[in-house]
Every structure is written in structure tokens, then in C-alpha cells.
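Any chance you could type out a protein's amino acid sequence plus the matching C-alpha cells because I've never seen that pairing?

——
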Amino acid sequence: MSYSVGQVSAFAGVTVRTLHHYDKAGLLSPSERSAAGYRLYGEADLARLQQILFYRELGFSLGEIGAILHDPGTNALEHLRARQAKLSEEIARLRRLAEVAERAIEVQQTGVSLTPEERFEVFGEIAFDLSYATDAELKWADSEGQRESMARAAAHTKEDWRQLMGEAGAWRAELLAAFDEGEPSEGERAMDLAEEHRLHISRWFTACPPDMHRRIADDFLADPRAFALVVPPSQQRPGLSAYMCRAVHANAARLGGEGRR
């Protein structure tokens, strides 16, 4: 049996345009012709189309599919195993994203409901970037500290947040003053401010030993969204995140080992 492009499109569930594209790409060309000269797909062509659609469903690119189908020496099993590994990684990533969404829902359900006016009163210019929250949750997904931090944040009352943000605002003013006055990042004043920040995290979110504080400070330097949670963009200065990062590292070295909790 031979079939026209329209017939193949109908029963294979692909568009005529897609079949023409496969033909142009050299993946699948009709191998037969009708008496009138029209190109037709034979049984072998349909079997090849099934292979193409199978690999496409698994996420292979047309180039990868062409390499598998055109080269008899290509080990299709190796390609499938590699794709299986990538799909497993993607499934794990999507599961973690689903957990992030679930935790965000829990926070919204159990957290404090604030009006826009109250939110500005408590948080001021500090805005929580959801994209950063998602990335951070994925990055620290296996961290007990991350889980504890999320749970404690969800349990904070409005007055807790008011006190927390008040402490953060006073600390931020001291940090900016030290930076503007040219205090060295490895000096005692800057290190003391770094230590205050570490203890603030421990007091309100999760235990923050020096090694963890180093990683947090490295994130401040690498990701502007993270540093914006500490110093809003309107108050930032060039080099401030690097200054904070160096102060944290210097303080961690001063504490030595795990340091104080």
C-alpha cells in the first residue's frame, strides 16, 4: 500500500507542513510515485516515520534523529540511555518546582495577610523576587537549613516581621555608613556588622554557622536578586555587595571553624 502526504498526515497526526519539513531535512522522503507522478509513502517510509515520531516525543532534535537513522554504526541504545538520564533529571527538577509551589501556597495560607499599606510599612523597599525564591529553593533543596528557614518564615507574625525588618533596617544603615566612610571590609567594624547579620539569620530563620554565611555572602555577590533582599537597589553603591562578601569571609575566618551559633 502507498499513501499520499495528506493521508499520512491524517492518520499519523502530523501536519503536511511537518512532513514536508522532514522531507526537506532529509529525514523522510516519499519513496514511491503514483502513475500520475505524485510522490507516495510506502510501508518502509511509514515505519521510518514511526521512528522519527518516537524520537521526537522523547525530545531528540532533528539533527540527533538524523544521525541515528542515517548512520548504521550509531548506537541507538546509547542515545536512548543518555536521553533517559536527561529526562530523569528534568522530572526531578519539575518535582522540586512542584514542591516550591506547594510551599509557597502553604506560606500564603499560613502566613500573615498584609494589606499593601501594611506590607510597605513592614518591608519598605525590600521586595521578594519570586524567581529568586524558586532558584534558591532549587539550589538549597537538600538543605535542612532551607527547610527550617521556610517553616520559620511562614510562622512569623506581623509583629515578628516588623521587629525583624526594623533590626535589618538599623543594621543596613550601619553597613552603608561603614562603607561610605571608607572602613576596610576586613576591619573590625565591617566584621562586626557581618557577625550581626549572621546572628540575625540565626535568630529569625535558621542556624547560620560561618561556612553557611560564606555561601550566602557569595550569593549576594553573584546574584543581584539576593543582595536586593538585604539592601534595596535604591540604597546600593557600586562595590557594596563585594564589600559585604569580603567582610563576611573575614568574619568567618576570625571566628574559625564552625564558630558561634
User: Anything to note?
Assistant: The chain is about 70% helix and 0% strand.
